[in-house]
Structure formats: C-alpha cells, structure tokens
Amino acid sequence: MQIINPHFIFMSDTITSNLAVAFKKTIRKIAPLEELIEDFPDAKITNLHENSLLMPGLINAHVHIEFSANKTQLSYGDFMNWLYSVIENREKLINDCKQECMNKAIDSMLASGITTFGAISSHGMDLNACVKAPQNVVFFNELIGSQATMADALFSDFLARLNASKAVQREGFYPAVAIHSPYSVHPILIKKAIEIVKNDNLKLTAHFMESQAERNWLDNSEGEFKNFFENLLKQKYAVSDSKEFLQYFNNSNVLLTHVVKANDEELELLAQNKHTVIHCPISNRLLGNGVLDLNRLDEKNIKWIVATDGLSSNYKLDLFEEMKIALFMQSNTPLLELANKLIRSVTIDAANALGINTGEIAEGKNADMLIIDLDKAPTNELALHLILHKYNISTIYINGKLIK
Ligand code: BEZ
Ligand code: FE2
Questions:
Q1: Helices and strands in the chain: count of H runs, count of E runs
Q2: Are residues 350 and 392 in the same domain?
Q3: Count of the separate structural domains present in the chain
Q4: 90 and 120, same structural domain?
Q5: Which of ligand 1's atoms lies nearest the C-alpha of 186?
Q6: How far is CA 262 from its chain centroid?
Q7: How far is the CA of 169 from the centre of ligand 1 (A)?
Q8: 15 and 151, same domain (yes or no)
Q9: Which residues are part of the catalytic machinery?
Q10: SS3 readout for 223-282
Q11: Are residues 217 and 184 in the same domain?
C-alpha cells in the first residue's frame, strides 16, 4: 500500500485540500493523512510539494498509432484530397512507422498525461507497441471493405488480428472492434463483426458522418465520393444508408467518431441508444470537415468525449492541446462550463464510454493518476487553467505503479 499526500485533489468538479490517497492497483481510501496512517501503518508515504495537484490520468479514446509517421506527407484542408493522399501514401506511411516511431507516439501521449488510449488498429502492426505500452489500451481491431467479393478474405484477416489481440494477457489491455465507417464496410461484414462483439462483450467503435462527401454518398450515392467509388471500387451505390448503419448498433453503446454532419434524426438515434460521440476538433479542422456543435449534442442529451485522432490528421497527440482547440472552436458556449465538461470528457466520461474502471480520483477506481505542478492554489476556474497553461506533470501512476 502507498499513500500520497498532495496539496490538492481534483475530484469530479470539486477541489479538495487536506486529503491524502491510499492506493495499490486501485484507490483504497481518500481521507486525512493521519487517518490513512492509522488504517495502513505499513504504507509508504509520499508527501508532495507545495501547490501539487492530484488529478485523474487522461483518456484518449481515438488514435491511429500505425499512421504516426505522417508529418507533412498527407494533404490537409479538404477531406477527399486528404483521403486520396492517404491512399497514395498509405504503404509508405505504414512502412515508415516501425516500432520506434510507434513508441515515440505512445511516449508523447504519456508525457502529456494520457494514461489510457483507444488504438484504432487498421493492420495489427501496432499490436506489439500497444502491448508494451505503459498505458491502459483498448485495442480496436478495424474492419474495412465495401466490396462483397472481398468480404471473406477481409473478414478472416480481421479475425486473425482480433484473435491475436485476444491472446494478449496483460493488465489494462482490452481487445475491441472498430468498424471503419458506414461507407467503407459492407453490411455482411458489419453483421458478422457485431455478432462477435455481442458474444465476447467487446467495445465497438466506428467513424460516422465525418464529411459532407460521406453525407451526400450515404443519402443519395452522389457527391465527391461518386468518382472515388466508381473509379477505385467499381461501385455505383452506397452499401448502406446512415439509418441502416445505425440500426446495426441498436441496444449497444457504441463510440461514434466525428458525427459533424449528422442530422437530427440520426442524433435522436444516438441519444436513444446511449452512444457516445468522440469529438476530434483538430482533425475536423485540418480535413475541412467543419465544427461539431457540442451544444446541440448537450441539448439532446448525447454523451460526447474528446480525442486526438491520429497523427494522420493532427500535429500532436496531446489532449490538453485538443481541449484548448475545442474551447476556442465552441466560441458561443459559456467558457468555464465548457472547460469543466472538457476535462470530464477526457477523464470520467471517456472511462465510462470505454467501460473501464478509471478516470476519477475516487475510492475503488484504478489508480491512474497525474501529479500536476500548479504555481498557486487552484480557484474554481481550475479546469480552464489546466487547459490554458501547460503545467508540468511531475509524476504519473498507472494501475498504482509509478511510471514517471
Ligand atoms: C473500402 O475498402 O471499401 C474503402 C476504403 C476507404 C474508403 C472507402 C472505401
Ligand atoms: Fe480516426
């Protein structure tokens, strides 16, 4: 058992002082130091420095580790141009991102306080790096392919990757499933994947309504995807419309990434099924996809969290940066209220969406914790200042183990 005695603790929306935390893998008790010493006389005690703040580790629910080699290769500003540039550069980007490149991406997340991430794995090349990562990892094996003729081959490749990740036995590693998007996955594949998700009780995620091109293609089999599908995949029509796609996910809680172009009817379905939206504001801006209206989601009681997406559509994997951009993009939302929601979105809300027992400094939760060096005692505007100022993270615990 260990006891840490910080000056302040960020617990849900409140800041406490004069409380210490006893923990092993999980947080056992939060109480005044003297009480913890009485309860756990053999515990190792760490008294922390002045203005130290204990807060939960951050959770980045959507990142593409395999694409971490990109810096300037991919084209930004327009979704379809970006997609064509991905297709053109995919092999080189994947080949250029070996273990060291993936480790660098994972280490950079740790350095910015990310103690859990959701890796969208297109090829399984990132499995080893994710297994060895110090963080908790939800490893989303991605299924893609809109051509029925390719379905069997693609599904057996997906199954092999999923099974490899299911064979991993390490604390804090969770195999899971990603369905790439409504336009890129054939319903045959979706149905087969969902059966596995249900049988094995796995987490499921998908990209949904990211671009205007996706909107037009799913609604009318028209728009900028028309040439793409006709020329590259010999398809004249979308494989599903958006309602059909969402119906596959009825009665399960799915994480849907982007959702920028969703209409009211789709948002009602998201609310009814208690899905969670993953908001990646930097990716949306860089690919010319516009701004997700978080107020509209709040009005409809739709849960949302914030994530970075991959380095294929971002310049860093840093949730503090991501929250700052979200804060400035949602310029009509009351500032402090939004800052508090953003911090919740990358801690407790993300943990709940991923179904992991973390994201909060609370008894019984896994001890995934950051110690932040503030320069003054925090005020009730702490959430805002955490986002605005890049405070030093002096110490990181994951599952109770000292990582930094
Ligand atoms: C496909 O494999 O069918 C696909 C991939 C990317 C975008 C669209 C379709
Ligand atoms: Fe993504």
A1: 16, 18
A2: no
A3: 2
A4: yes
A5: 3
A6: 20
A7: 32
A8: no
A9: 210
A10: CCHHHHHHHHHCCCCCCCCHHHHHHCCCCCCCEEEECCCCCHHHHHHHHHCCCEEEECHH
A11: yes
Whether residue 128 contacts residue 72, with contact meaning beta carbons closer than 8 Å, is answered with no
d(CA 322, CA 178): 22
Residues 6+ apart with CB under 8 A from 128: 99
149 burial via Cβ count (<10 Å: 0-12, 13-18, 19+) = exposed
Q: Name the closest-CA residue to atom 9, ligand 1.
A: 184
Q: Which atom of ligand 1 is nearest to the CA of 146?
A: 3
Residue 297 sits in the same domain as residue 364: no
Ligand 2 centroid to 132 CA: how many Å? 22
Domain hosting residue 217, numbered range: 58-354
114 & 148 share domain: yes
The residues lining ligand 1, judged by C-beta closer than 6 Å to any ligand atom, are: 144-146, 183-184, 233
Residue with CA nearest ligand 1 atom 6: 184
Give, using CA atoms, the residue closest to atom 5 of ligand 1. 184
CATH at 133 = 3.20.20.140
CATH number (domain holding residue 366): 2.30.40.10
Based on the fold, state whether residues 170 and 279 are members of the same structural domain.
yes
Give the DSSP H or E segment for 345. helix 335-345
List, for residues 303-316, the tens digit of each pLDDT value: 999 999 999 999 99
Minimum-distance ligand to the CA of 256? 2
CA dist 112 and 103 (Å) reads 14
- Number of the ligand 1 atom closest to the C-alpha atom of 228: 8
pTM of the model: 0.98
| Shared domain check, 314 and 367 | no
Q: How confident is the model at residue 12 (pLDDT cuts 50, 70, 90)?
A: confident
Contact 391, 151 (CB under 8 A): no
How many angstroms separate the alpha carbon of residue 49 from the centre of ligand 2?
39
Contacts of 268 (CB under 8 A, 6+ apart): 300
Q: Return the amino acid letter for 60.
A: N
Q: Which of 354, 374, 394 is the last residue of a domain?
A: 354
* Chain segment 233-255, per-residue pLDDT in tens: 999 999 999 999 999 999 899 99
| Category of 167 on φ-ψ map: left (φ > 0), alpha (ψ -120 to 50) or beta | alpha
CA-to-CA dists, residue 309 to 218, 233, 279, 314, angstroms: 23, 26, 9, 7
